[in-house]
Batch of 2 targets.
Target 1
Amino acid sequence: MGITTSPGVSAKKRPWRVTFKKQWQLYLMSFPMLFYLLLFAYVPLLGWVMAFQEFRPRFGLSPIGQVMSNKWVGLENFKTLLDNTTILGQRFLQSVVNTLGQSILILVLGFFLTIMLSLLLNELRLTGVKRFVQNVLYLPHFLSWVIVAMLASTALSLPGSGGFLNDFLLKVGIVDRPIQFLADPGYFWGIVAGTHLWKNLGWNTIIYMAAMTSIDPNLYEAASIDGANRYQKMWHVTLASIRPTIVLLLIINIGMLLTSGFEIQWLLGQGVNIVRSENIDVFVLRYGIKMGNFSLATAAGILRTVVSILLLTGSNFVARSLKQETLF
Amino acid sequence: MTALILFSTGGSFKVVFDAFPPEYLLYGGALMKRTLFTAFLLVILSAVLFASGADETKGAQGNGEPHVFSPDNPVTIDAWIVTSQTAPSPDNKISKLLKEKLGVTLNYDITTPDQQLDRIGIMLAAGSIPELVGSTDQQARLVQGGALLRLDDYLDSGRWPLLAEHVRPVRKKLTWTGGGVEDGLYQFPNYNRFYGNPPIMSPIHWGTAFWIQKDVLAFHNYPSLENMTLERYFDMIESYMKANPTIDGAKTIGFSFPMQGRVWGLTNPPLFLAGYPNDGGVMVDDGQAKIYANSKYAYDYFKFLNMAHDRGLVDPESFTQTLDQYLAKVASGRVLGVHDQRWSFGTANDALVANGQYERTYAATMPTFPGKKPYYADRDVLNINQGFGIASNAENPELLLDFLEIMLTPEWQTILSWGIEGEDYLVDENGLFYKTQEMRDNFNNLTWKQDNRLEALLDIMVKRQGELPGGNAFAAGDQPGEFFDSLKQYDKDFLAAYGLQTWRQFVNDPPPNPAHYPAWQISPPDGSAAQVANQQLEDAAQRYLSEAVLTDPARFDSVWDEYMAAIDSIDVAAFEAVITEGVQARIRAAGGE
């Protein structure tokens, strides 16, 4: 993992210019990526001014012209969003709760299941079988979310419309009348987590599998000599060796807790389940962009970014104080 | 720094990027467009710096010679069209004709109605829009955002007499006065500007009804549809359902309605049951608009629907299915009744006809509450804020108007609507158009239409509805003789059983529309409290009404109370005030004429 910093590498106070002269080719090669980041990650931040305006896009104006032609409203848009005495505010806060609920469910389930699956795959001895299983597991990742949503919607519908999940539950006798999964808000977080797992579980094992291949085989040998059985080797060698990877991925994922995806919620969300389906992205689309209220959309985006940065630095801090690998 | 300069020149690209995180960009290929756009910016950086296209003065409006359309002088027109019709196939017959006769190639960019608002936001912010703009946005965001060209001076120049005549009688109604830009005409209406005196009206009722499968009526031996009530409507469905638990092997569905993107499928019935015409979310009495979501009428209807659901007559998936899934169900022929507007399930109806399942197509019924007179059908309402406009940064607006002008000639109107003489229709000794059975079947064949019709273009194009010169109807289906001749035997017998000649006769004979009508065309401005209230009313309706209908009848009242509490917390007064204001303005305008 190239993200980690180890104290040994830090340059010994060499003048900047000397380093540059020596490594200018490297700098040159990094320039396109730097430019890309600047253009797509930092320059768009200028658009944040919209959050402090009552922004109405005017066709054909330059960005500066757009900014100048709109009314400044200060923190009005943020107040609207965070005011839980109005319906709009309640709705936004509910969408934050939904986003967190959905992504924590995805994170927790995904975190344990991915590691478990990676361990299991790692234990497969026959390379042919392993490859085959891996390929089968990766496949759903390449389906578009639209297709996944349609599959899920059919699978969860009533038996008469092809709802095989209900068919199955009825046949096994778990339920005595079909469940309308999409009509009961209580199921929605589970549906989101379920579809994410179905789609990405296999794919997410890749990083862990890569980390596992770099484990020194001597460790296993030594463990065997010490009398470790297979489960003990999994626990004390494999899992222990990929711990830095696990911690790093966890920190990164915690930073993305306020992003629980968009497509499933948008495509399967209906009035009847909206209390649990509308997350921040959907809220922004419905009450911001669809209603031409770009300022509100931007304000919601800023709030999300700020909280995400707090979560990321927070979890990084916790990791550091626990003497674990850190992101920065 | 370079990036900054680059950025400040490229339209408000940042707006788009910030408002659409990468998840959205992947949607609909927008990501690729964005990348291309950036590449484009890099290449012509210097050129862009000096081209502030919006301020260009369009000097000679209407002066100069009209464009001579000929194959020797080929032009390509980029057209953005909002429609649920599909794009024509690449070697479409009429496309070829346009190229051979006029040298015109159309580049279609088709957006479905439900995706429209997303696209408009992107177009406005990015400052990039195809030159010919065919939208159906009630909110007129393109107009307010300055993306469309004001057409008044062009029309007054006299260079486009047909277009000028097209809007002349309805100019006042079409004129945008909602602010943001100078008052004026920005779009040519795509529907319901009628020619002829009196115009030939469609024999089909395209509006709202409680539709019922013809076979259900046949099963009950063609009962009278006068004084229809909800009880009778659902009783007919129930007894048919008992006799036919499956249709073509699939479970029979009693009653459904569209909801996704068409929430009126759920919410509008109380309006009609109470004998009001379609004013959208409000009832208008004495020039005052009032919502009816919290009225006794609404309570009665949804209480009834809840009971009907308990009897197994309402498809519970109505509340969770997508529009496509709904249409697919209707097209499968197993839905006995729908509350919908005829155009809304048009594609499903076409599919049933294409399959020859005439007994599974629908007839209109008009249930009302006791003592109320049905007012389901209105006089055809002119579309406003819909149809073709010209992008304000179009390089050559005159050419585009020339193109629309030539499309409005009777010759091209006939080609677009009827097709090519000898191939798609024939002319009798009186000059009246008619078709052979094969030609009619072609028109019902979805694949044939892609190769031989320009339905997407026609949907948004200016149309001479009513009457073409020579006494022919604009649309083949409206031709008086043609309508009855084209009916299949099943439909002829069905009409005969009721002693009627057209489908329109199944609904009420509409009186002249009230001056304000229809209030649904009045939309609160973007960002206003009224607009938010409207959205919240819609959301509350979807959430609580779904629950109210699906719940155990014993719990109905408590869910209803929750719904009323939710409505009470919404700023309904702001919404009603804006609509009332619009209604009053229209009444004043009508009085002033």
Target 2
Amino acid sequence: MVLNMGPQHPSTHGVLRLELITDGEIVKEAIPHMGYLHRCFEKHAESLTYQQTIPFTDRMDYLASMNNSHAWVMGVERMLGIDNDIPKRVEYIRVLVCELNRISSHLIALGTYGIDIGAFTPFLWCFRDREHITSMLEWASGSRLLYNYIWIGGLFYDLPVGFEERCLEFVTYFKPKLKELNQLLTDNQIFISRTANVGVLPIDVAINYGCSGPVLRGSGVKWDLRRIDNYSAYPELEFDIPVGKGEMGSVGDCWDRYKVRVDEITESLKMIEQCSNRLLTDLKRTPDFDPRAKLPRKIIPKAQEYYMRAESPRGELGFYFVADGKTEIPQRVKSRGPSFNNLSVISELSKGVMIADLIAILGSIDIVLGEVDR
Amino acid sequence: MTVDEIKALLIAKVGEGVVIAEETPGLQSVLTIQPDKIVDVMRELRDNPLTYFDFLACLSGIDHGPEIGKFSVVYNLTSIPYQTQLTLKVMKDHTDRSFENLPVFLSVNEVYRTADWHEREAYDLVGIYFEGHPDLRRILLPDDWEGFPLRKDYKNAEYYKGIKID
């Protein structure tokens, strides 16, 4: 029988249609159909300047706008050759807001994953804690989801007074909450039975399909671009890269991918602590500090092609720029959304699984359709 | 391995004239490969223990515009064990802009499975035909969409199935 899952299934976090060829309750094949959300990011980028495109990158992965604009901005800065002139304070603020955004994105992933499995309370708890991050980022940038805060050569505005202290308060508030969440969901026997040994993704398949981020790390590959490329302020921060170890079953199952996200939240909290402390001590706010001081008058990179990659919450986010050296408008931009590649592995993972397990597999990949379709 | 070493390796393994051009002054080094040899080159780069480029990060189809009359495909490779990056490029002259006669490149789907969707996307948006692709159909746009939106001479459609597009 052919079953259609979606386009509006709650587990698809957007609009995705899965065409399932089933035999009873067993999925023989799953064919993803996307494009319902296609908003032509690459076409828009060919008619707007580098600066004007930043809001459009925010709309790609709308749960992690800061990380998207950070990647875009770093790519343009490197093409202009000004990436070493960015003030340290600006770099630290960028990392601070990016890591806050990473936590809020992972909280959505974990909360909605609970819903996919059938647990409702973790969803409410995650959204309650995410609310603190959203209102903090709103305080800094004026918007709750699509921030447009990181600009080429600087920031839209310096952090509001008291932001760093509030970050530290949030960390102290959030640590015990994360422990509670682990007790409720991570160590829950029902949850473990539903996710362990389900959707096992071997390393070679993951690499062959171009998976990245928690999906690749869940399979046991220690591959994090924040450490590999050492961009922005990351080389000065201390953090570990969590990988899937197969504690509850085989390496690379749904539980491993879920656990990598939980552990990444802990690592991000460490980074937020370090960033806030440095911003409060040796990179203090001064009256003459202008976050837009390095903003170039005209953004015209010389004729070149450049591939910028950065670690967004879902994996390797890449922008391939083709600049002609004459205008402020890129000649061609190709964006490589991590969800696009992560989703392509679904047909491989879903051969011979139960329909209910397919939901668990799809949720564990954590796709954002805005990024698949762009 | 440096770009020169990779170049020498490719010439030794795949044959003379496989690397057409080399761009190294920029931020990343780019090798332009002869279009008919791209599958051999990729298989060599993936399997050779000296290079081991096992991860195809990005595949972009590029239309250089009607004045230049060229199409190219760019591959961004990553080697996870060696932590290196390499950009490969294939380019073809193609002045015919009609839908019946698309520029043809070889599909690398058998070397990297991730190329499957990327090639479908390049076909969908730029209008590049990939020879040897198992399932080349549109991926983001509807199957009956006319034209390739990322071509430089694309005129925005006014109607789709009788519905006006704003």
